[in-house]
Design goal:
Helix content is 52%, strand content 11%. The chain has 385 residues and is an alpha/beta fold. It folds into two domains: 109 residues, no CATH class; 235 residues, Alpha-Beta Complex (Spore Coat Polysaccharide Biosynthesis Protein SpsA, Chain A). The protein has a seven-stranded mixed beta sheet with strand order 3-2-1-4-8-6-9, with helices on both faces. A three-stranded mixed beta sheet has the order 5-10-7. The termini are far apart.
Length: 385
């Protein structure tokens, strides 16, 4: 009697195989459906079937700055010289002790559409940035608000037009991609990969009807939406959350659009050390637990099945027969191939750096960093005691 290979495996081996098939399938679902949505959307745009606003409405650009005099001097002119008919730039000086005010004063002489204000030194609030943004928003003359950071530079002078073209009827929020400038060293590659993968998640989920966050480096929404939602009132007890938590509480599949054009990308200055990046990561993750339950589940399932995939792979390679080892390794290379194709195609879309073997390293390392921060991070400094 012929006995199949499957029948020769022990019950434990069969359970391992079944579990691996499940997590492998879920991982492919995330990459081919959610993350690949960015590439599908790009193809739709190239075919001219994505509707965009035909007019160019007036825009208020809001930037909050603290001790950013050098960056403002370097990057603010690229925002002030955008190819757009009507816009203003409002920079809020958030208690700077450097030459920020001097730089803004000099630039305002050259650019009449630059306005400056400040956060009062007597302000006793948890997040002076949220207060500063609120001051800037209330001072804005126009309904469309476009946000970026003081250390950000748009790719070219069509940044505003690419972001605002998405404000079709019913659209309240537009989220774009904000990358980090490519510099030498492994920490720069780590930051680039982490940022790219977060972009895959946030923009990919939004394109499949599940928007959950935006980044303050490159996002836009309506002033009337901010007023209707009572601003940042839901997260005043937190130091962070002016971007991701606001979007998480307001965005849905009907009122949110995504901008993926390479001309819409903004580039920020990356941290220059692992400790600096880690503290930044710690601050960003301090708000994640306040996401909606559906957002947390969507993110959590991907991370959980990713971790299980590697654990099951290791278990099979150590304890299982050769035939099952070959099957498991095949699953690994299929998943890696899908990762390689999706991540680098999207990276090309945004003129990001490419990743090859490092995908495997960062794929394992970053969830461990996130887990460590969630378990042992300095949560007390981000939340009211």
């Amino acid at each position: 009697m012929n006995i199949t290979i499957f029948e020769q495996w022990s019950l434990v081996d069969q359970i391992l195989l079944a579990a691996m098939i499940i997590v492998f399938g879920i991982q492919l679902y995330y990459y081919l459906y959610h993350f690949n949505a960015i590439l599908r959307y790009s193809r739709k745009q190239s075919k001219g079937i994505v509707p965009f606003l035909e007019t160019q409405p007036a825009v208020s650009i809001i930037i909050c700055a603290r001790n950013e005099s050098e960056h403002l001097q370097q990057f603010l002119p690229t925002i002030l010289t955008q190819d757009y008919p009507q816009y203003e730039v409002i920079v809020i000086n958030d208690g700077s002790t450097d030459a920020t005010e001097d730089v803004l004063r000099e630039l305002s002489k050259q650019y009449p559409h630059l306005y400056r204000t400040f956060v009062p030194s007597s302000a006793d609030v948890r997040s002076t940035k949220k207060l500063g943004l609120t001051i800037g928003i209330k001072a804005a003359k126009y309904d469309l608000l476009l946000f970026t950071d003081a250390d950000c530079q748009p790719t070219d002078n069509h940044w505003i037009s690419n972001m605002t073209r998405n404000f079709t009827q019913g659209t309240e929020l537009v989220i774009g991609y904000g990358g980090y400038r490519k510099e030498d060293g492994w920490i720069s590659r780590l930051i680039s990969y982490d940022t790219l993968f977060i972009g895959l998640q946030s923009l990919g989920f939004a394109l499949t009807g599940r928007p959950y966050m935006g980044v303050g480096r490159n996002m836009a929404y309506r002033k009337e939406t901010f007023i209707r939602e009572k601003g940042f009132s839901k997260s005043l007890n937190l130091q962070s959350g002016d971007d991701d938590l606001f979007v998480n509480g307001v965005a849905n599949e009907f009122n949110t659009r995504v901008e993926i054009s390479p001309k819409s990308v903004t580039w920020s200055v990356p941290k220059d050390s692992f400790n600096s990046w880690f503290r930044q990561k710690e601050r960003h993750l301090s708000t994640a637990k306040f996401y909606t339950k559906s957002s947390l589940m969507l993110l959590g399932v991907e991370v959980l099945t990713r971790g299980l995939f590697y654990l099951l792979l290791i278990a099979v390679l150590i304890f299982s027969p050769l035939s099952l080892k070959i099957t498991a390794v095949t699953f690994f290379f299929v998943r890696y191939g899908v990762q390689l194709w999706t991540i680098n195609k999207v990276a090309k879309q945004w003129n990001e750096r490419r990743f090859y073997f490092s995908i495997f390293i960062f794929d394992l390392f970053l969830p461990l960093v996130n887990l460590y921060i969630q378990l042992f991070g300095k949560k007390s400094i981000y939340q009211w005691k």
